[in-house]
Write a structure and sequence with these properties.
Blueprint: E1 13-25, E2 28-39, E3 45-54, H1 59-62, H2 71-74, E4 81-84, E5 96-103, E6 112-120, E7 125-131, H3 142-145, H4 161-165
Antiparallel strand pairs: 1-2, 2-5, 3-4, 3-6, 6-7
Amino acid sequence: MTPPIEKDSNPPLIKDFNWSPTKVVWDKVYDIEVSFTVEDDKTRIKYAELRFIPVEYEYFITDYGMRPEDYPKVFPPDEKRIYELKPLDGEFDERTEEFSVNIKNITGGREYMIIIIAEDKAGPTQKFEYKTPYIRQYENFAKQDNTTVGVVYLLWWGKDNNWNDYKGEDRPLLGFYSSKDLL
């Protein structure tokens, strides 16, 4: 016997969204868990997908003059990830389904979009979007050894003559610079 065709013009609801870090080392988030519930008032849930997309900041190039070759040095590349999900109970057989996904090895150095797409048996889909706060790229090593990081930038400093006469112990981590580098 063929089951009756389900008709419903209302999309399912995505609710109880939560994300939380599952691996954090010195303020650096490496892994997170995302959980949520999809519910429909008339028909069974048919499909759920989660997309984890790194936010790109092209306006740093177009609006602020960042060199394109420097962009990946400042905002490290990370992959877009798409997860086709199964309910926690393993079957799409109810009007309410719970989902959970672990996202591992996050590069960081940016924010991420978490996009959830859910569909019921009758066809309507629902989309939910959430932008994470900034996730750092590196561990906060200063907490390990009480290191203080500081910056002194001398606008009139040159690469050639000033560094030859420099008597200080501290050296720039990114190499010698000249104030002319900014031009």
